[in-house]
Amino acid sequence: MGVAETKCSSGYGKPPWVFKGSALYQLHLVKAETARTFIPKEFRLVEAFGYTLGGFFLANYEESPAGAFDELVVIAGIVWNPPTSCAWAARVLVSSNDACDHGRKEVGLPSHVAKFSKRIEGIPRQQTSKFNRFLSMIGLDTASSTPNGGMDVQVTEINGPRAINICEINLPTFGPGFKLDKGMGPAIKMSLPSFSGRTMHNPNLLKYSCNIECRVRTMQPAKVSGPRQAPKHDTEPLGHHNCQSADSSNGKLLDNGQNLSISVMLSKPILALEFSCLKMHVEAPITVSHCSESSCRNSLGVS
């Protein structure tokens, strides 16, 4: 397949685009039949015994071309790209309109705007030490501010005037969005190659790389739960999010995509990596294969 450089968005400036913050990269065993619903037919899925390697990337960027924002990348699985392999994103949820627009148009990602609601959970009072109970008696209770608590992150996708709960992620310790000990884990450098495209906003097949520098450590996998009933105010129109979903006119198709993405999130976790002191350089995508109007319409299910 031929390869050509793509044009870049002026709003983000010249690539590579730099993102700084922290992240959780969690790998799951995903059913191959679920992953195939997202991946173009020309790719061969890396699988064994009916499963592929997917999961999610949950990040909090303190600095980026779009400013500070949160991101959840749902990874459907891994496809062959001899002599290596590349990840394929099933859905990308971001708390920034600019990041959504750039991801769709320039990187070919299935990006959607979302709200990330975070709640810190301290150690339950019954689990505190006798010394902490003594401090509580004299008015110096420290249990509520302990650094050993967890954090719940509720992700709500904004679909036009509606807000739809996607999942809730329970981090066992302070995760994305919190300052971590810079001495935690070894410093590493790695590259995460990925394919993208075949979307309504960018029908061509693209390839891009995320070059990462960070400190990494293994951690207990985060617990993921499915959608829960949204509070009343979460279903009200949210006019400040103007990056509308291309699928909003086809509720049935959108619901299917959401449900399959949730299936990936709820699949069995096998490894969780915490990235602190994260610095990620995203290279400009290259076009691997151009899509003619007729073939693109067929591959995207447009009649």
Automatic annotation (TrEMBL):
It comes from the Eukaryota. InterPro entries: ADC_dom_sf (IPR023375), NDX1-like (IPR039343). Residues 221-250 are annotated as: Disordered. PANTHER family: PROTEIN NEOXANTHIN-DEFICIENT 1 (PTHR35467:SF2), PTHR35467. This is Protein NEOXANTHIN-DEFICIENT 1.
